[in-house]
Automatic annotation (TrEMBL):
The lineage of its organism: Eukaryota, Metazoa, Chordata, Craniata, Vertebrata. It comes from Callaeas wilsoni (North Island kokako). PANTHER family: ES1 PROTEIN HOMOLOG, MITOCHONDRIAL. InterPro entries: Class_I_gatase-like (IPR029062), ElbB (IPR026041). Transmembrane segments: none annotated. This is GAL3A protein. CDD domains: GATase1_ES1.
Length: 224
């Protein structure tokens, strides 16, 4: 039987939701591997809405579930209805929505809180020893919830290629082990069944980001 994988989205768009290319890559690679993706998002207001052409917030108000449905082509479920017993794995793509809508990392860093629904889902998969795939900024969720876990967001030294490397330092302060890796690589924490890759934390060609996400998906399915 095909593996059933929950894909949790955080809106639609890199600056205020899920990174569209990352979410698409996850869905493409799951399809290629013969897995069944089931897309979820929390039915909550976005922290704010960003005009992606100008890079500036707007006075609009939008809903995370409604916006995520754009990526899912309407085939989406409320995260509150997710039943871990019916699923084999969980994947959360990146994008600032993870740090703004699924958590408060964008404003509070390592002192953030995580949305109760998102925390409950992550803890349920972890407790059931079912694999969790996280890319880009989403490994911060694991760093916050599972002290001692091993993750990667790429590199821990800031430079032009790695503009968000300070994230790794904040994660280390939470007690997790950060493993430096290239954008096409993944890190597997076998004990916690976590698979992470850096994706757009790196200024890299989009095909390399797509390839790294593909490796993450395959490792998640191998563990499922």
């Amino acid at each position: 039987m095909a593996k059933r994988v929950a894909v949790v989205l955080a809106g639609c768009g890199v600056f205020d939701g899920s990174e569209v290319h990352e979410a698409s890559a996850v869905l493409v690679h799951l399809s290629r591997e013969g897995a069944q993706a089931e897309v979820y998002a929390p039915n909550i207001p976005q922290m704010h809405v960003v005009d992606h052409a100008k890079g500036q917030p707007t006075p609009e108000q939008r809903n995370v579930l409604v916006e995520s449905a754009r990526i899912a082509r309407g085939n989406i479920k409320d995260l509150a209805k997710l039943d871990v017993k019916e699923l084999d794995a969980l994947i959360i793509p990146g994008g600032f929505g993870v740090a703004k809508n699924l958590s408060t990392w964008a404003t509070q860093g390592k002192n953030c809180s995580i949305s109760k629904e998102v925390e409950d889902v992550l803890r349920a998969f972890h407790a059931a020893h079912k694999p969790i795939g996280l890319c880009c900024i989403s490994p911060v969720l694991a760093a916050k919830l599972f002290p001692g876990c091993e993750v990667t967001v790429g590199h821990d030294t800031e430079c032009e290629q790695w503009p968000y490397a300070k994230t790794a330092e904040a994660m280390k302060e939470l007690g997790c082990r950060h493993v430096n890796s290239h954008v096409t690589e993944v890190h597997v924490d076998a004990r916690n069944r976590l698979v992470t890759t850096s994706a757009f934390m790196c200024n890299a060609p989009i095909h390399e980001i797509h390839d790294g996400i593909g490796k993450m998906v395959r490792e998640v399915l191998r563990l499922a």
